[in-house]
Amino acid sequence: MSNSDKSNPVCKIVVDAMGGDFAPRNAILGAIDAVKVDNSIRLLLVGRTDEIKGILSEINADTAYYKIIDAPDVIDMNENPVVALKSKPNSSIAVSAKLIAGGNADAFISAGNTGAVVASSTLLIGRIKGVERPTIGTFIPNQKGICTLFDVGAFVDSKPQHLLSYAVMANIYVKEIYGINSPTIGLLSVGEESEKGNKLTKDTTELLKKSNLNFVGNVEGRDILKGTTNIVICDGFIGNILLKFGESVPGLMKHLLTQHAKKSLFEKIKIGLFKNTLKEALRPLDYQGYGGVPLLGVKGVTIIGHGSSTPLAIKNMVLRAKEMHDKELVNKIAFSLNQSQEKITESKDE
Amino acid sequence: MSNSDKSNPVCKIVVDAMGGDFAPRNAILGAIDAVKVDNSIRLLLVGRTDEIKGILSEINADTAYYKIIDAPDVIDMNENPVVALKSKPNSSIAVSAKLIAGGNADAFISAGNTGAVVASSTLLIGRIKGVERPTIGTFIPNQKGICTLFDVGAFVDSKPQHLLSYAVMANIYVKEIYGINSPTIGLLSVGEESEKGNKLTKDTTELLKKSNLNFVGNVEGRDILKGTTNIVICDGFIGNILLKFGESVPGLMKHLLTQHAKKSLFEKIKIGLFKNTLKEALRPLDYQGYGGVPLLGVKGVTIIGHGSSTPLAIKNMVLRAKEMHDKELVNKIAFSLNQSQEKITESKDE
User: Which of A15, A218, A244, B17 is an S-S bond match for B24, by CB 3.0 to 4.6 Å?
Assistant: First the structure.
């Protein structure tokens, strides 16, 4: 999985230089910025060599810290992931995943086609034993800090054992990355009582109760922003819808403020004066700070970024990837899944 | 269903005086305010006579416009709806529903236990022919005005025919109440393409395509606030979670502004000065203007309010109930469901 050894703590991070709406510029600028923070990082910049070189020469990047891996093809943001992966084996996403799969790098970040990153990680890097479905989690800032929501990867029609494995993986992620020893886990439903919910939540509750996780029961839609639990687990259908709904809230706010500013010059001036304060106050909501979101359950560190990722977002993705590698997240998840499986089997035998 | 005749346009509205966190005060103040706007309304105030009289005497309400119907029991907000309905036949909610069922009133509003209002309407007033499940819709303000989201009533594990009937009923509601002739209808999913979604959305798409509704296909979480369609249809599990998530957004905003104000006196003053502007700008988000949400699919007009309903919200609920009665929503929904059933049957025969 990893070719770094303890005596040489260099971490090789594969950067899909062609991923995102502002590639390769933002991907490269952000990745190079990350190296300035942590010089144990070595970048493998994957994509069209000429384009990558063009950006690198502009910023006079230190050649000691990166290598360019040529990948002439690009998977577009709207291409069908599986079809594109097959028809474009020389795409930056496919080449990146193969670098991890071949043990030539330690972590992979991309702001490209999410489905293709998931598919390449799942098919080329492979799943951890016991994982039927990998999961994407996201960070939702709330009144107590951050809630991590799994799954937002649009894996739909989940089965209870999928949600259980999301919870096991999320538990390790939050414990290791946020240093929360026994994170609280809620199951997203329509009422706090365990009899409130759909068939999936009721069946999943049974499994979660048997696990050794800090499962507190059902949580409701309002609990995400209230910060009732550290982790919220749901089917990817609802997670994806919630994520996109949440991302559209600032747009509505902006629209309502713009409309209000039209009412009078006085209101317009007030809103103009307040703009920066509002922006500062709402900074915790800015996704750039979180960078990207982890894909858990594959045999490698994969972080997926927003298509519109800025250099700051990419930089934070690279740094988070390094942290996940250093903390051996993949091994810890594999161990924890194995333990969880034993625990469930035991309770069946009883 | 209704005992008003065309020559005498008086509309009798049953008000669950004991419903809501601030009952009976807010329920009565709001209902009396509605009569001041529309004096063709006659109120049947259902609840504990003494308590109701106490509030009425405070405000010197005109006795011509209301009647008190005694109901000594109250169903609490957190009681199990079906159990409570059985054990408390003299509760304000049960008595209210029976008034509609018996043809003694034209519409019913309550800010009480939502489940109990749904159960009493469904069991005592009864469902319209062809309705397996009634549906609760909500109004979500967005960049183009309002999106109506059905179902938010937490009816979970829906079947495709349930979602189709929600769409048929929502179509009539939006057409009649908002005067939109052929409202656009989107099915909430994880991608715009019809192949993106779960089993339920894929199967429902087939049904919606065969209907005579203005179905535009899948919409995503972000489309609700963008205002892509007039109506968004989803299973009650996700609708309920989205609704509660959305309701918790202002709380997070307030929290972030309060935190920011602590940074410096200057920021605190700026936020203080801006508070009212922000409040005014975000007024379209205030649920009070919408009052309550309709329960569609039962043989009577039922409007359900938030537990924390203010007198303004209750007033708007009463006025909306009157409008639904005047526009014969129940008959129109019954007619439309019948037509839709014929259309689906025809397309099966072809």
Answer: B17
